[in-house]
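Predict both folds.
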Amino acid sequence: MNNILNFLEKLGASARSSLSGLGSCTRLFFLTIIYSSDSFKRFNLTIKEIYFTGVLSLVIIIVSAFFVGMVLGLQGYYTLEKYGSSEAIGVLVALALVRELGPVVTALLFAGRAGTAITAEIGLMKTTEQLSAMEMMAVSPIARIVAPRFWAGMISMPILATIFSMVGILGGYFIAVLVIGVDDGAFWSQMQANVDFHNDIVDGAIKSLVFGFACTLIALYQGLVAPPTAEGVSRATTKTVVISSLSVLGLDFVLTSFMFV
């Protein structure tokens, strides 16, 4: 009986902690929106963070996208060939990337590269009391530190997801057309005829925006609440990757249910 009570007590404490964290994260979002006007007055800060979160992530995005596209082209060709539809390989690659793999894989890579860097940077500022020093000088850390990084993540994610999908399609083209020998015209014409701008491309862009919002906000929140120790910052960066990855996969299911069903 005591074991059951202890389990229920721990479960309740965990649920309460999760709800408290969700409430604090929501509060951080609204504060970020309120202080965004002050942040936009010095938009060079946001530009700097776009370079940090977006441009510096291009290498891993491009390399990963090319290999993902090649794998899709290879696997898709041998699957479609069994049904005599190998010319539809362009449609398979494009839809898989634009609808799902582009936004999802980009978000996972973004969380692992840029999200952890944001958390570690803010956690280190908290550890060295730079955030407290800003408050003493009447400078809002939300306007100076959080808002530029938030908007940089929101701007960078859709662009990175678009680049991922484009490079992935080129990877599929390389394998299917240049290596295997699928007809060039059939590859592109089938893709153009079956990929819809609104139902596929726009919905994929909406996904990337939502994932960028979730990953960036989680990274910022974990950095702000990280204990001011080396171990605390390390745990916060780990939590950023885990929570962001699970959030992306969960949100992907919810958004897909509304968009494509």
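Second protein follows, with its predicted structure tokens after the sequence.
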Amino acid sequence: MRYFLTLGIFFLTLSLADKSVVKTVTINQMQYAQKTFLQAKEIALQEAKNAAAKEIYGEVVISETVMANGKILDDVVREQSSGIVRIKGEPKFRNGESFGDIVVTIEAYATDEDLQNRSVLKANTEREESESSGAIKKIEQIKRGFYGIWSGFAMRGSGGSGDIMIKITDSGEATINYDSLHCGGELIIQEKTADLVKFKEKLTYGADKCVDKHSITLKKLSNTQMLFMQFDKDETEVSKGTLYREE
């Protein structure tokens, strides 16, 4: 029993061990002629941090240095989505083989908690990006189709005009309202192409004010505009107008 307990503790210790890397980076000060020597050292240090963070998290990062009383306590490299790399001790600088070379070596690490937090955050970020991408695609699909709320005016063959509002959901359910005539109802789809859709009208209120069972044809002119045509049972056009997308 003691053997298995010891073995379990050993593997638990391994699973909670920090992930660390040692990185050495060389830059040449001649590449940064407009920079001071101290600024060039900071550039070399930043490149070493980025290299270490990329190996640990697989991503390029931005950095933050924690200081107190003028002394570096802990250099922290934070990936833009909050991955953290910590620097042990002080960076070690030395001259390189070529004139102007600045060499820096750092020992960087991330704790097990840092890695777990980063994994959770990365999963959440990927899910949010996927949901956002799906929402954008859905919006684009809706804009390309007949879905949405459309309103405008139609001229009647008998004279006069009236306002119209048509709502079409992404599931294909459609309604029509003639506000000025106080009637409206459902639109039952009969035929559909990419630029044309035909409905049969079924009034659910105001049947005493409007004629029921007209045919409605909508012809797409653009993503925000379509032609409205209404026909009686003899296929005679009784009204015509232009509708505009509200949303």
